[in-house]
Design a protein that fits this description.
Residues 1-27, 125-149 are annotated as: Disordered. It is a single chain. Strands 1-2 form a two-stranded antiparallel ribbon. The chain has 335 residues and is mainly alpha-helical. Helices cover 52% and strands 2% of the residues. A hairpin with a 2-residue loop joins strand 1 and strand 2. The model is unreliable at 207-211, 274-283 and 310-335 (pLDDT under 50). It has helices at 24-34, 43-51, 90-100, 123-134, 147-201, 213-270, 291-308, and strands spanning 75-77, 80-82. The chain has a domain at 71-100.
Length: 335
C-alpha cells in the first residue's frame, strides 16, 4: 500500500491585535469621562453636546397592538386598530388613489411637425394624380391654395406693413427735429453775421429774414400767449396775497377766541363768578326781560336775603328799590 499523504500544514499564528490610534477629540472625551466632575453640569453645555451628535436613522414602527392616540372613531379588526380615515369606503379609497396617483396610459404621438392638417384625397383624386404624374409632358395640376394660407400671408403682410409705418414715423419725427435745430442754427449765424457787419461798418444792416410768414405768425402767437400768461400770473399773485392776508386775520381771530375760551374755562374750573355792581341795580326795567335776567334777579335777592337774614318779599317788577352801598355787602364770603 502506498504511504498516507502528509498532513496539511498548520495555519499561521494570528497577528497581534493592534488598536487604532485615537483622535484628539476622542482622547479629550475619554479624559473628561475618566476625571471626576468638579462642578455642576450646565444644561446648555449638555444640550450643545447632544446637538453635535450624529443624526440617528429613521425608525418606522407599524405596531398597532397598543395605539398611543385613542379616539372614538377607532375600531379593532383582526387584532389591529384602524382609524376612521383608513376604512375601505368609497371616500377613503378615492382619497388614497389621489394621494398615491394613478399611472396614466402610455400615448404615442407621430407628429412630424406638419404646419397644418390637409384634407385627405379620395381614391378618384389619387388616380387622377397618378395619371398626371405618368404623363410627364403635361404639367402637374396646381394645388388649390388653402384659406388658412391666405390668412397667414395676409397676417404677415399686415405685420410687415405695421413695422414699416412705425419706422417711417420715427424717421419723420427725427427729420423734423433736425430741421428745427438747423433753422435755429441758421438764425443764430445770421444774427452773428449782422453783429460783425455792424462792428465793421458802423451802420445798421437790414436783416435778411429767411423765416417764412408762417413762422412769423407763430412767433406772434407765442408772444401773445406769453403776455396773457404773464397777466394771469400777476392776477393770481394778487389773489394769493389777498387770501394770505385774510388767512392771517382769521388766524388772529381764532387765537383770540381760543384765549377767551381758555380764560372762561379757567374761571369755571376755579368756581369764580363775575362781580355784581349793586349800586347800579334796580328792580324797574322798561324793556321786556328775558329768562336770564329773571334768574339773575332771583339770585341777587337770595344773596341779599342771606346777608341781611331777612328774606325779601315778593316785590313786583314795577317796584323800584334803593341802591345798596358796596361796603354793606360782603361779597368775599360768597365768591
Amino acid at each position: 500500500m502506498p504511504p498516507p499523504p502528509p498532513p496539511p500544514p498548520t495555519a499561521p499564528p494570528p497577528p497581534e491585535f493592534q488598536k487604532k490610534p485615537l483622535s484628539q477629540n476622542a482622547q479629550k472625551t475619554l479624559d473628561k469621562l475618566r476625571t471626576r466632575a468638579r462642578r455642576r453640569p450646565d444644561w446648555s453645555e449638555m444640550m450643545a453636546e447632544v446637538e453635535q451628535g450624529k443624526k440617528l436613522r429613521h425608525v418606522e414602527c407599524n405596531d398597532r397592538s397598543r395605539p398611543i392616540l385613542t379616539c372614538k372613531s377607532m375600531t379593532k379588526v383582526k387584532g389591529q386598530f384602524i382609524f376612521e380615515t383608513e376604512k375601505a369606503n368609497a371616500h377613503n379609497v378615492l382619497l388614497q388613489q389621489i394621494q398615491q396617483g394613478i399611472r396614466l396610459k402610455p400615448t404615442k404621438c407621430n407628429d412630424r411637425s406638419l404646419r397644418k392638417f390637409r384634407r385627405q384625397m379620395t381614391i378618384e383624386e389619387q388616380i387622377q394624380k397618378s395619371e398626371s404624374r405618368a404623363n410627364f409632358a403635361e404639367p402637374p395640376p396646381e394645388e388649390e391654395e388653402d384659406e388658412m394660407d391666405d390668412i397667414d400671408k395676409l397676417r404677415d403682410d399686415l405685420q410687415s406693413t405695421k413695422q414699416m409705418l412705425a419706422l417711417e414715423l420715427r424717421n419723420k419725427e427725427a427729420h423734423e427735429r433736425e430741421n428745427k435745430r438747423l433753422l435755429a442754427r441758421i438764425a443764430n449765424l445770421e444774427a452773428e453775421l449782422e453783429r460783425e457787419r455792424w462792428s465793421i461798418t458802423g451802420e445798421p444792416v437790414t436783416r435778411t429774414s429767411t423765416v417764412s410768414a408762417i413762422d412769423e405768425s407763430l412767433v406772434q402767437s407765442l408772444k401773445s400767449e406769453a403776455e396773457s400768461a404773464q397777466k394771469q400770473a400777476s392776477l393770481l399773485e394778487k389773489k394769493y396775497q389777498d387770501t394770505a392776508e385774510q388767512l392771517d386775520k382769521a388766524k388772529t381771530e381764532i387765537e383770540e377766541q381760543k384765549r377767551k375760551i381758555a380764560l372762561l374755562e379757567k374761571q369755571i374750573s376755579q368756581g369764580s363768578r363775575p362781580q355784581i355792581q349793586w349800586q347800579h341795580f334796580s328792580y324797574e326795567d322798561d324793556d321786556e326781560e328775558d329768562d336770564y335776567a329773571i334768574q339773575q334777579r332771583s339770585f341777587r335777592r337770595q344773596v341779599f336775603a342771606k346777608t341781611t337774614h331777612n328774606p325779601l318779599p315778593n316785590v313786583c317788577v314795577q317796584h323800584r328799590a334803593k341802591p345798596i352801598p358796596h361796603s354793606n355787602f360782603p361779597l368775599k364770603a360768597f365768591l
